[in-house]
Write a structure and sequence with these properties.
There is one protein chain. This protein has 376 residues and is an alpha+beta fold. The protein is built from eight helices and 20 strands. The chain has two domains: 141 residues, DNA methylase specificity domains (Adenine-n6-DNA-methyltransferase TaqI, Chain A, domain 2, Alpha-Beta Complex), CATH 3.90.220.20; 141 residues, Alpha-Beta Complex (Adenine-n6-DNA-methyltransferase TaqI, Chain A, domain 2), CATH 3.90.220. 34% of the residues lie in helices and 18% in strands. Strand 13 and strand 14 form a beta hairpin. Helix 4 packs antiparallel against helix 8. The longest helix is centred in the C-terminal third of the chain and has 43 residues.
Length: 376
């Protein structure tokens, strides 16, 4: 049996179930990333009425109609869990009508191909905001192999997803160990003023030794990134050096997704950053490990602390003086090393999981291609 062509609107249907009984709360609200994953919402849910939110049942799809500011990717996902969640009523929810014609996971593999992202962007319309509306989704045409071929390749996909989920579960366990360890230390150890263990660094690139290749920005994920600033005609001499084992943070905390933008240079290279940033280092490494301090900075409670202690009118600022006043538990150096080792294991597993997700997404076009060629 050969391939069959379908208009997507003939084999999927819009689903509009509302949270009218309020059976789902704030903890059930989800957003969608352009990596095609569900995630806890970043929206401010304070005083938001949830009765009009849409329910996304298991094996249902949901997508964000707005395609601008998505990095040329389409924010769509499939609820592959056993639990229902809710999303803003601005999103589109739909499901496959008949799994004997099209398997949901097979359709999701089709959506995971870069060519589908390109198709959606090309077919999005609007002025200030470009949208890929439900009618446009229905007009998509797809080629489908017979159902047994779909099942064969979906089994491969499900196996990979299961392995990834198992790996991610172990990551969550490590994070719980780290968080529990720190919480215990905060209860058992006296708190110490951070300013007694760190010092400000203000060494400039005055001799222009460091170039644009060494220039870095900082993300709210607390990592260094390539600078996005327009550097045409800009002198690099006032830029501050961030040497190995040094920290850097952006004083401005407003409009940062409730996070403080901070990074730790754990490489052997020296970076340069804007003179508007603050750079510091630990000056008593025999008492406080820089890696241990960075682990404390990565906790959500530190983001909350920094935001709460930021001040200003048009822009809220967390200054170097505020950083010095932070109180932290400093256990024996051997205990710090133990906690850091667990945290490093957590970060490495997190990195591997991210790589596995990327590989899974890259495999989707290959699996689709294989299924089509098998049935041709």
């Amino acid at each position: 049996m050969g391939l069959s062509k379908y208009r997507l609107g003939d084999i999927i249907e819009n689903v509009d179930i509302r949270n009218t009984a309020l059976q789902f709360g704030v903890s059930d609200v989800r957003g969608i990333s352009n990596t095609k994953e569900m995630m806890p919402t970043k929206a401010d849910m304070l005083n938001r009425a949830l009765d009009n939110f849409k329910v996304v049942l298991p094996k249902h799809f949901v997508y964000n109609r707005r395609t601008t500011r998505m990095g040329d990717k389409f924010a769509i996902t499939l609820n592959e869990t056993e639990n229902s969640v809710i999303v803003t009523d601005d999103y589109i929810v739909f499901r496959v009508k008949d799994e004997n014609i099209l398997i949901s996971e097979y359709l999701f593999m089709l959506f995971n191909r870069p060519e589908f992202d390109r198709y959606v962007r090309f077919n999005s319309w609007g002025s200030a905001t470009e949208m890929f509306v439900w009618e446009s989704m229905c007009e998509v045409e797809i080629l489908l192999p017979e159902i047994n071929i779909q099942r064969k390749y979906v089994r491969i996909y499900r196996s990979l997803r299961k392995n990834l989920a198992s790996y991610e579960s172990n990551i969550d366990d490590l994070k719980m160990v780290c968080d529990g360890y720190i919480d215990k230390l905060k209860q058992q150890q006296p708190l110490n003023r951070l300013g007694d263990y760190i010092e400000t660094c203000d060494e400039r690139n005055s001799d222009n030794k460091y170039t644009l290749d060494d220039l870095r920005g900082i993300s709210i994920q607390k990592t260094f990134i390539d600078s996005k600033a327009d550097m045409a005609g800009v002198s690099l001499t006032p830029y501050i050096l961030v040497k190995p084992d040094s920290f850097v943070f952006v004083p401005v905390t407003s409009r940062n997704g409730e996070k403080i933008t901070l990074a730790f240079n754990d490489s052997k290279d020296t970076h340069i950053v804007s003179s508007a940033y603050n750079v510091f280092r630990v000056n008593k490494k025999e008492v406080l490990l820089p890696d241990y301090l960075f682990m404390l900075f990565n906790r959500p409670e530190f983001d909350r602390y920094a935001r709460f202690n930021s001040w200003g009118s048009a822009r809220e600022i967390f200054t170097m003086d505020d950083m010095n006043d932070v109180m932290i538990p400093i256990p024996d150096i051997s205990i710090q090393k133990e906690v850091v080792n667990i945290h490093k294991c957590y970060l490495e597993r997190q990195r591997i999981a991210s790589k596995l997700k990327e590989q899974l997404n890259n495999l989707c076009p290959i699996l689709i291609k294989g299924s089509l060629e098998t049935n041709s």
